[in-house]
Design goal:
It is found in: Cell membrane. The chain is built from ten helices and no strands. It is mainly α. The radius of gyration is 17 Å and the shape is globular. The two termini are about 30 Å apart.
């Protein structure tokens, strides 16, 4: 894979990864939306998800290691079992049904919610703990189906938590669990026997670390209002991306 890449290609990918992980450093999700489209110009599509899984997991560890005391473990404990259950259902749907039919409904929900949240019609009401059931379960389903469940968890956490760092680090913890599951699956499937994939991941690692650091610094300077606006813009872009994929 690397032998087909020019040094300028690697430079462009590194710049893209850095920008991608600035967003991840702020919100704790969004890498598939930004990096996936860019990387597809340079490397095979079937190598993008395994590589992003390694980078996402590393970024989540970097976020959590620095600010682990900000993580709200009670929310992690609520979300993870439902995420796992939803992932099992999502895997079954993937095997026995047509997931594309579901994609347009998810996209419509995400776009509608994000537009509502950005409209400023009224302040967002705080979710009750029971809201974890639909958000955790549905997030798990769509993580398994499309590798895109992070924004579902982000909607839930932004409706539950008041502190920017708490939302970001708790989101990173959830993403860490999710990507670790994918890494184990890819490992068992022999995907990581491709040494060129691992080497490219290593080359892009500094860009990821720089991006996460910059994103964290930006988050610390943001008010909750501005932080949630950024989160909801990324959620909106995620929904539009899903809609394009559904209608393609």
């Amino acid at each position: 894979m690397l032998e087909h890449l020019h040094w300028l290609d690697v430079l462009i990918m590194t710049a893209g990864i850095t920008v991608t992980y600035v967003i991840f450093g702020i919100t704790g999700f969004g890498t598939a939306l930004i990096a996936g489209s860019l990387l597809a110009f340079f490397i095979p599509v079937d190598r993008i998800v395994p590589m992003l899984a390694l980078l996402d997991c590393s970024a989540a560890v970097a976020n959590v290691a620095r600010d682990r005391h900000s993580a709200v473990l009670s929310e992690v404990k609520r979300l993870v079992p439902l995420m796992i259950l939803g992932s099992l259902v999502g895997a079954a749907v993937l095997l026995y049904s047509d997931p594309q039919k579901l994609l347009v409904y998810l996209a419509a929900f995400v776009i509608a919610y994000s537009l509502y949240a950005l409209s400023g019609i009224k302040p967002s009401a705080e979710f009750t703990p029971r809201a974890v059931y639909p958000f955790g379960f549905i997030g798990g389903i769509f993580s398994a189906l499309f590798g895109s469940g992070g924004f579902i968890y982000a909607i839930y956490l932004s409706g539950r938590l008041k502190d920017n760092s708490a939302i970001r680090v708790t989101q990173s913890t959830i993403i860490g669990f999710s990507t670790l599951t994918r890494i184990v699956i890819f490992l068992l499937a022999g995907v990581y026997t491709d040494l060129s994939l691992l080497l490219l991941t290593l080359i892009l690692l500094p860009g990821m670390l720089i991006g996460v650091y910059i994103g964290r610094r930006i988050t610390l300077a943001l008010s909750r209002e501005h932080f949630l606006k950024i989160v909801n813009v990324i959620v909106l872009l995620s929904g539009l991306s899903l809609l394009v994929k559904a209608l393609a």
